[in-house]
Write a structure and sequence with these properties.
By secondary structure, this protein is mainly alpha-helical. The chain contains eleven helices and two strands. The protein has one domain (5-21, 44-206). It has helices at 5-28, 41-45, 53-57, 59-62, 65-68, 73-96, 106-109, 114-120, 130-148, 153-172, 178-206; strands at residues 35-36, 99-100.
Length: 207
Amino acid sequence: MRRHFWLKALGTTAFTWLFFIGYFHLLRHPAQPVTVMPLTALDHLVPFQPQWLVAYVSLWLYVGVAPGLQRGFVELVVYGLWAAALCLTGLALFYLWPTAVPPLTPAMAGAPGFDLLKGVDAAGNACPSMHVAVAIFSAVWVEQQLRQVGAPVWLRSVNAGWFLAIAYSTLAVKQHVALDVLAGGLLGLGFAWLSLRGRAGTRLGGH
């Protein structure tokens, strides 16, 4: 974490800022009619739970863990390029197919913190959930790093639990529906698999 600390911290912040520029541009200027995502049985099963907002916004701290664990500059750049490819793919999907979740009821929208949330993460550009896609991409990379250094099981469990809390929170605070979460999970897993497969191949070739 100490190696290239400021590069990692400032780079992650700038990367997130650039993503949100594209996110809000597409949100305010959709290229196609916006589709409201349908609710499933799981959406009806999970009630609105505003206390999960803390887990939801913790993603913006969690995204710094995986780049923080990259030891070398080249490894950091490779990670950043794959993360950028994931986010650009998500933005391309939002351009081609703008989506939104059903609106919150007035009582839900008035919950503490939700007015601020709407200012930084509106309920449009819903599917795939980039919240879940980036979280699972990060979780897989962090798990890989922890396994390589022989980290204890409890620490790896914290990583898995943090991801699960973020994923569940997207449903609990009604920023996404189940189909968004499923699509985001598949997108993030796909990029995680491709990126780590390429990383393994590069290491093998280096030997």
